[in-house]
Design a protein that fits this description.
Elements (H helix, E strand, L loop, with lengths): L5 H18 L11 E3 L2 H14 L4 E5 L9 E2 L2 E2 L15 H18 L6 H21 L7 H7 L8 H10 L4 E8 H10 L7 E6 L1 E3 L5 E4 L9 H8 L11 E6 L16 E8 L3 H11 L2 E4 L5 H10 L3 H9 L2 H10 L8
Parallel strand pairs: 2-5, 2-9, 5-6, 9-10, 10-11
Antiparallel strand pairs: 1-11, 3-4, 7-8
Helix pairs in contact: 1-12, 3-4, 5-7, 6-10
Length: 342
Amino acid sequence: MIQQIPWIYTPVRTVLAIWHQLIKNEIPELSKCSVLMRERSRVEETIYNMQRAGPGSLQVISDFDMTLTRFAYKGQRVPTTHNILDNRLLIDEDCEKKIKKLLNTYYPIEIDARLSTEEKLPLMVEWWTKVHELLIEQKIKKDMLAQAVKESRSMLRDGYKVFFDLLSEFQVPLLIFSAGIGDVLEEVIRQSHVFHPNVHIISNYMDFDHTGVLQAFKGQLIHTFNKREGALSHAAHLTELKGRPNVLLLGDSLGDLTMADGVMNAQNILTIGFLNDQVEERKESYVKSFDIVLVNDETLEIPNAILKNILKTQDSALTCICTSPAGAYLLQCCHRPGVEGW
C-alpha cells in the first residue's frame, strides 16, 4: 500500500530513524572511567530487552558484604557482618584476636587470583567453620545484636536508599545471598530503614536457645564459593521469584556469579562486579567474567542508573516520544489512509 503514496515513503523512513534514536537506551553513567565492560553492545542489548519485558519479569540477586555495603570509608575498611560481631558486648578480646588472625590468614587466599576455586573451597569451609565455632563459644546474646550494629562502622553504599526504594516501588524481588551472618545483615538493613517486604535473604543464621543465647548455626554453611548449591536449594522455594526470567546480579567475588543458577528459565542476566581490592591483579579475570566491572566505586550509582532505565514504563516512554515533534509527526503519518502500521 505504501508504494501508492511515494510522497510519504521517505518522511516515514526518516521519522522511524528518529524514533529509534529517541527510544535508544542511553545510560551516560556507563561511560565513567571506573566502569569496565568487555562488550558494551551486549550490555546495552540486555538492558533494552529487560526494559521491554518490564518490571514484572525482573528480579535482583545480590551479595551483601562489600557489595551492598561499602568496602572502605575514608581509608579504613568497613566491617563485614562477621566483623560487626567484634564488639565487647558480644565477644571477649581473646576471641577478637583469633577471628582477626583467621581473617588475615584466609582472606588473602579468598582473593588470590592465582588459585582456582577448587583449591580455595576447602579452605573457605575451614575458615567459616572456625569462626562460627569461636562465636558459639562466646554465648552471644540475641538481644545485644542491635546495639552492636548501632555501634559499628557498617555502611551501605551511597545510593542505597534509591536502590532499595526503587525495587520496592516496582515490586521487584531483591534476593540477598550472603556468606555473612544473616541476623546481623537483617539488622543493618533494618536500621537503615530499607527492609521492605520485597527483600529476601539467604545467609548463615544463628540458632539461639530458649534464653536467647547462641548455641549453633542453622542449616548448610554458606561461604563465598558454594553459593550455587544454596541458589539451587533455596531460590526455588521463593514463589515471588517464579515467572521472573530477567536477572540483575551484583557481587564482589567471582563466586557470586553462581547466585543466579537457581533461576528457572532465565532469559536475560546482567552481572555487575565490584572490584574493591587488588585491582590490577584481578582486573582481567573480572572483566572476563562480569558484564560490568566497577573499579573502586563505593556507590550504587551504576546499578541505580541501570534499574531506572529498565523500570521505565512503556506508557511513560511512549508519552515522551509522542509529545516530541518527530513522534507526533510519525503518529500523524501512520494514521493517514493507506498507511498500514509502522
